[in-house]
């Protein structure tokens, strides 16, 4: 049986980041070069961070835009992307509501609504605390929205949009289901924004390579030996006590297993007792659409709370890349495991784009679709508790779940890099203590 010190499951951002980080940490400490093997079930790296190049259009599996809070991480990646044109873009986003384009975030820009909608939002915001005991905490994500913003804002945008996105009852989700990514604003922020706009958010600017998001994956592959990643090798089971992983190709004894695979799948592969319903998620169907000419030029993506439209978000690659043909990604949320009739859904998407004025006499010249399942995980009180319990057991056997799906959380791509670097540092430090360094 083969043995490997670090078995990494998944050649996406998280897995490849860890492979780089553990090699770097060990070298900096003067430790022996680690034995690392990355196994990837697909024939290509990237996970959901893949890029499609078709008929002159460059599309990702969905909109993957890197929002860097740590300049050193972006600099490290860019240094491994020689010759690649990476754009730094100041985000321009809006919400389509009642035929108007309202600046994002909605709750800070209610003054842009029609008079009747604006007054209703403002009044319900002012009286939002009526009926609530201020000493009692919000019991769910939906409850938090009502408490913070009132009925008008909640029911015009925050609830219908997020119901389309998550494809579930928002009462099911934990109060902090979106963490720092939810655009909170208090009454003073909202009132102040009416006179002096300040719509800054965690992703006010983003970086995007003209070759697509896959270029960031290629940057993570840049320093890794070519034989370190084994493609079309799927993890099939884990014997935690023996620390043996069985794949579609072989059995591997490991010291540490680092996995970005969905957490519920890992629990199943490791034969850990759990309730599948504790780890629910949505599914997202993405259409990438290429047209024969330009559309609107002053926007990067638009949110659509209207339940009569099939999509919840539409993004414009052409306005990021400066290309002369409208290039869109269109996202549709559904329950996990739902089936899509792709041709009829595409017709509904094109009809919706035409209704909203994005497609007029445009001709669709190229398109691509992909379904992501899971896409957004449902963070619930139960999932948080069960993840903590089961992760403790996995880590006790040298298995480390990482990333959005391993962590069963809502996070950015940069967060995945930060997390796996921290894990590599922790494991290298443990080795140093064992060696008496």
Notes on the structure:
The two termini are 31 Å apart. The chain has twelve helices and 18 strands. Helix 1 (13-28) packs parallel to helix 6. The radius of gyration is 23 Å and the shape is globular. Strands 1, 2, 9, 10, 11, 12 and 18 form a seven-stranded mixed beta sheet that branches. The protein has a seven-stranded mixed beta sheet with strand order 7-6-14-15-16-13-17. It is an alpha/beta fold and 437 residues long. It has three domains: 2-53 and 66-87 and 208-276 and 379-435, Rossmann fold (3-Layer(aba) Sandwich); 103-193, no CATH class; 282-372, Alpha-Beta Plaits (2-Layer Sandwich). Helices cover 33% and strands 23% of the residues. It has helices at 13-28, 71-78, 115-126, 141-166, 187-193, 214-221, 263-269, 318-321, 342-355, 381-396, 403-406, 413-435, and strands at residues 2-9, 36-40, 51-54, 57-60, 86-90, 93-97, 100-103, 205-209, 229-231, 235-239, 244-247, 251-259, 282-291, 301-303, 313-316, 327-335, 364-372, 399-401.
Helix and strand arrangement:
Blueprint: E1 2-9, H1 13-28, E2 36-40, E3 51-54, E4 57-60, H2 71-78, E5 86-90, E6 93-97, E7 100-103, H3 115-126, H4 141-166, H5 187-193, E8 205-209, H6 214-221, E9 229-231, E10 235-239, E11 244-247, E12 251-259, H7 263-269, E13 282-291, E14 301-303, E15 313-316, H8 318-321, E16 327-335, H9 342-355, E17 364-372, H10 381-396, E18 399-401, H11 403-406, H12 413-435
Parallel strand pairs: 1-2, 1-12, 2-9, 6-14, 12-18
Antiparallel strand pairs: 3-4, 5-8, 6-7, 10-11, 11-12, 13-16, 13-17, 14-15, 15-16
Helix pairs in contact: 1-6, 1-12, 3-4
